Amino acid sequence: MDKLVIRGGHRISGNITASGSKNTSLPIIAATLLTGDGTFSLHRIPDLQDITTFSQLLRHLGSEITFSDNTLQISNRNVKNIQAPYELVKKMRASIYVLGPMLARFGHARVSLPGGCAFGPRPIDLHLMAMEKLGATISIETGFIDATIHGKKLQGGIIDFPVSSVGATGNALMAAVLAEGTTTINNAAAEPEIVTLCKFLIKMGAKIKGTGTTELEIEGAHSLKSIEFDNVFDRIETGTLLAAAAITGGSITINNVDPEQMKSVLKKFIHAGCIIETSNNSITLKSPEKLLPTDVTAKPYPAFPTDMQAQWIALMTQANGISHITDKVYHERFNHIPELNRLGAHIEIHKNQAIVDGPKPLSGAIVMSTDLRASASLVLAGLVAEGTTEVLRVYHLDRGYEKIEKKLNSLGADISREKYNEF
Ligand code: EPZ
After folding, report:
1. CATH class of 23-230
2. What is the CB-side half-sphere exposure of residue 188 using CA atoms within 13 A?
3. Cα(14)–Cα(28) distance, rounded to whole angstroms?
């Protein structure tokens, strides 16, 4: 297995270009399944383990895929298999994204139930409810979701989501674009990932109104076409790199981003004392002498994202005072806290809130990654810790951060990747 060995105490400063977004790549790759016509060219797809896993899943279904220089080419003309197996789905919960498009195109899909998640319950009931509202019959047998349509097509319907879900909104959209008639999605997720998916589907020929709002109206299309598409920047990678500069007292400019999508996060950096300057496609952060304690509450977009919660906790270990970090999306997403405390942080958890008492000098230790963003928080802590921090099970980080140690090293970090045996 790989570990990252971080020799702390170096400032993160300089210029860097953001990678393409993982969490937009996955739904748009799934959306290609809606047509067998032609070849898709998707640009700015990050070279990540999750993209490899998702490509394996599509190949298993029959897709032909090539990936080079961050461009993914997909042809789905030979897709015939309608079953997503456990061996692939268990590696990545986002595999559920194939349910909507497969059902819409073939009238039948079988997707293995994803199973547990490292940071608490992650049900898929809303995905299934949405398919049922569009006329599918769902049964769960032998660990598989079996979804079928009785007539030829799904039927437009009204989907009221009781909670905002990125994944369920994405699946509902991908099913509704080929349904007969009109579908309304109420309390739809308005995350940039859904906005990008809407733009992608519209370019394919779908008719969607309300993009970027919580009410989407979809007029089912007869068929959709393959397209060329430029993916957007990764807002969570961007936030993590900003935090890397802020925690080490550095200055950073991140290019090829859309600051509009980062407003809630940038506001918190400003509150923490950082100077933030933006242009239409870049963000610059200059660190203050002393970081100020800053409370955040993770909620659906446009609020502060849950995917930045762990990194914010790491940053606040160096702020002068007490910060409260609450997660209202995933109440149990706090596996990073015992590990951060092992590095010398003082963090307590009360229900879904972390209370961080800063600033505390951190000192290097061996720590264990438990999930993607937890790993990112440990890397941030390692950057500022005295001595050497070893972050084990770095495969979690590789799921979502493209060339992370190379990027950080180019900004002044001292990180190496080494092999180790885990018993
Ligand atoms: C997406 O997961 C992201 N994953 C997650 O990114 C992110 O943390 C999450 O959205 C929230 O922003 C991808 O985009 C691939 P949700 P998703 O459905 O779609 C509840 C990362 O680190 N819910 O929006 O699975 C759920 O429990 C990650 O990159 C139900 O109750 O999340 C949660 O409380 C991991 N029933 C809330 O909705 C359902 O059927 C929001 O989850 C579905 C969700």
Report:
1. alpha beta
2. 30
3. 32
Residue 97's nearest CA partner among 138, 143, 157, 57 is 57
Q: DSSP strand E in 273-387: where?
A: 275-278, 282-286, 296-298, 321-327, 347-350, 353-358, 366-368
Tell which one of 122, 125, 377 to mutate to probe ligand 1, the residue whose CB is within 8 A of the most ligand atoms: 122
Task: Please give the number of the atom of ligand 1 that sits closest to the Cα of 129.
Answer: 40
Q: Where are the domains of the chain?
A: 2-15+234-419, 23-230
For residues 351 and 330, the answer to whether their CB atoms sit within 8 Å is no
Q: Which helix (H) or strand (E) holds 306?
A: none
pLDDT tens string 345-370: 999 999 999 999 999 999 999 999 99
Is there a shared CATH topology between the 2-15+234-419 domain and the 23-230 domain?
yes
Residue type, 69: D
pLDDT in tens, 141-161: 999 999 999 888 999 999 999
Give the domain 2-15+234-419 fold.
UDP-n-acetylglucosamine1-carboxyvinyl-transferase; Chain (3.65.10)
